Amino acid sequence: MRTKMQPFWLAFPTVLALLVLFVAPMLWILINTLRADGLTYFIKFLTDSFYLDILWNTVWVSLRVTFIALLLGYPTAYFMARTKARGKNLLMIVIIFPFLVSAVVRSYGWMVILGNKGLLNQLLLALGVVETPLKIMNTSAAVIIGLVHLLLPYMILSITSVIQGIDKNIEYAAYSLGAKPAKTFFKVVLPLSSPGIISGCILVFTLSMTSYVTPKLLGGARFRMMSTMVFQEINVNFNWSFAAAISYILLFTILVILVLSNYATAGVSRRVGGAKNA
Amino acid sequence: MREDKVGPLPKIIAVLVFVFLMAPLVVIILASFSPTSLVVFPPKGFSLEWYRNIFGSSANFLSGFVNSIQVAAIATAADILLGVTASLSVSRYQFRGRDALVAFFTSPMYVPSITFAFVLLQVFSAMGSIPAFWRILLGHVVIVLPYIVRNTLAVLASFNWTLEDAAAGLGANPVQVFFKVTLPIIKPGVIAGALLSFLYSFDEAVLSSLLSSPKFITLPIRIMNYMELSFDPTLAAISTLLILFSLTAIVLLERFVGLDMFVK
Amino acid sequence: MAVLELKNLTKTYGGFTAVDNIDLTVRDGEIVALLGESGCGKTTTLRMIAGFTAPNGGTVAVDGREMNQVPPYRRNVGIFFQNYALFPHLSTYDNVAFGLKLKKLPREEIRRRVEDMLELVKLTGMEKRFPRELSGGQQQRVALARALVTEPSVLLLDEPLSNLDAKLRAEMQVEIKRIQRGLGITTIIVTHDQEEAVSLADRVVVMQKGKILQAGEPKAVFDHPVNPFVADFMGFSNFIPGTVAETGPDQVKIQADGGALYADAANCPGLRAGMPVQAAIRPENIRLVTEGTPESHRARLENVTYKGNVTRLSLTGLFGQPVYVHAHDYDGSLEGEVSVLFPRDKLVVYPADKS
Lengths: 278, 264, 355
Prior knowledge:
The complex is a heterotrimer of chains A (about 280), B (about 260) and C (about 350).
Chain A: H1 6-37, H2 40-47, H3 49-82, H4 88-96, H5 103-114, H6 119-127, H7 140-164, H8 168-176, H9 181-192, H10 194-209, H11 213-219, H12 226-235, H13 240-272
Helix pairs in contact in A: 1-13, 2-3, 2-13, 3-7, 3-10, 5-7, 5-11, 7-10, 7-11, 8-9, 10-13, 12-13
Chain B: H1 8-31, H2 49-56, H3 61-92, H4 98-106, H5 113-127, H6 132-157, H7 162-169, H8 174-203, H9 206-210, H10 219-229, H11 234-256
Chain C: E1 4-13, E2 16-26, E3 31-35, H1 42-50, E4 57-62, E5 65-66, E6 77-80, H2 92-102, H3 107-120, H4 136-148, E7 154-158, H5 166-183, E8 186-191, H6 194-200, E9 203-208, E10 211-216, H7 218-223, H8 228-233, E11 238-246, E12 251-256, E13 259-264, E14 276-281, E15 287-289, E16 297-306, E17 311-318, E18 321-327, E19 337-341, E20 348-351
């Protein structure tokens, strides 16, 4: 007895909760901000090169994080998807477990490693590789390392799941037709895993763009990314209108990227679809 | 061609990645036992001083822990109710706009937390003095929901709906069908999702930071605040406890439900 | 065009022996079917010939050249996979051309060979279609074309007809045989379907638990299975227990519960008087007679199931167990008591302890 009304009743509480707690506040503040100051602060942000630099810095950091995560994550994902090593479960735990640890803790760990008196410098000095401590903390390098560490599992899992879904016989078919393993990889596995690559990159990029804790702790007060800027405008400069503008610019940037990438993924999936295990 | 041997290159990179992922956590655990306030390697001794400090220090880690647990528990509980009902509504029935509804349920995931946190801050400020506990709780209810929905949708995707028909045919009304048939079967998956969501709320630092008040601070924020004052290994000690907390969670998850949900 | 030789070929996984020391020679241009149920080792054998699995013992040799150390991409073997394994991101043309492109042949020659092959499998015009746009039968033919176009010395077919409906299956049986005969490629087919094996192969090799039970021409295996397991697999669904009453140069008399059966001596190797035996006969070989004769047996008709091309009759009262008869052109006129004949040349008798 499936009346048409049932989905409505089941969905109702959640829809209501989201409307009240999420949609309404987001719209209300947007409207309020526009009504109070119009587009002044938006324009202020978008026309001042100081602020545009911060946006660009955020994008540039995120691009590098995404690229490194892809370089490191793809081989790891391929290994996870194809290996028959026992203890694969243990490896899964290693990949997933950092997920469950707060960004605060993870960043703290990197602070201990990367600081001027941190473990890395201790090691390098002791080995005589450098004479003075490397300044890594409070630079973009530290933030990138921290963000890669934070977001790498997303990339790995995204790609692993796609590669696991590729019918193994397709690889065997390529071998039997004369393709060496490297050839098979580039002509068959890589194209067929592209949906996973794309979704992994999008995920890592957007999470990196909106990250707060890691840039704040590893980048220091003078390293600016969008989220830390918003915090600063709120808590230090008490310029809430400007903070609102920045945070909405960030939101719109993310939305545009997501919409564009949706089209890209859909196109790719259509071309590549059907790789699933028979 | 040997049986499925993965080439040396992926294997080497994978090993490096595993070491990389574990490095800061291992360092923290080692550092927490350091006898000196500066962490040196190789460690010059062993001390539990920093662990004692957790409880004694004025940093109020304990109250932070309690606060985090409160928020995470209640937010997760609320989201289980909201998330499971929402997932059922779009999984059981096919209707036009189903995909849009799913997108709506998972939409908070795509909004930067800083944006949403700030919006809530302004809304709550305009409404008067709302206690920080409620501000953070309501915010977490929103941002945790997408994870429970996504997880429950995945669980329901492999659910055999004809079981519900069978139960109905045997005389069970919809409520009985849910509690006697559907719920028991999806329970493990839902609990796994709830565990992950709990930890996500527990670890959350953006909303918790912006919406906190001097009277209500969650543990991650306490840790961040402590860092501003002093960089001693008390941080490592409390972090180690949190790491063990998470490690226990994932080992339990792997034992009882398996980790396949992450590679769906 | 090659001779394939398997010598002492063995594969074990941990404690489990998948392929147990088998010997097989496939002649140039011959089609051999490896027939057996799941887990009998036929697919593992195929994979060892292809080079996807390394044997633990023994060798695979093509034209006298040992292939054990040769990786699959250097063996000149064409493989058809049960689930087709077409490259989903490539068009039909590119799927078929894949192996040729790897050989770095000139474009014109590739085009010519692909087009010829597509014509051979009757898929001309489908070059630009992607696998997901093709029907099951079309995908199957693309997979076949892809395996053949590189002119391999050996062709391996893994369950080539199992995914097709009855009509397509009949069509493709003819097609595969026609193409193979035309090209003369040494072929191995792996299947669990005895009908498929018998209709396609020059020689049928029945496998069980990693061993070859019987190898021979289809008719030989079909009519004279070497033991009850093979007999059962090939469709002998009647096994009647009894004891050897008399042996003779011409025929053997079996005493069963409630009657005597006579079988040609040629079908009763190694039997002595007094030995407990099982007499096997195919359901379609039992003849219904309208009137009793001295050699016929009376039975009661228990159940009639119409199966389209045959009618399956269950009889009781014969030798203490149900006996199944497949009758063509059954007009439904019989009921109650019937008479049946067990032709001497169609009964095959085995000692009772042989499995």
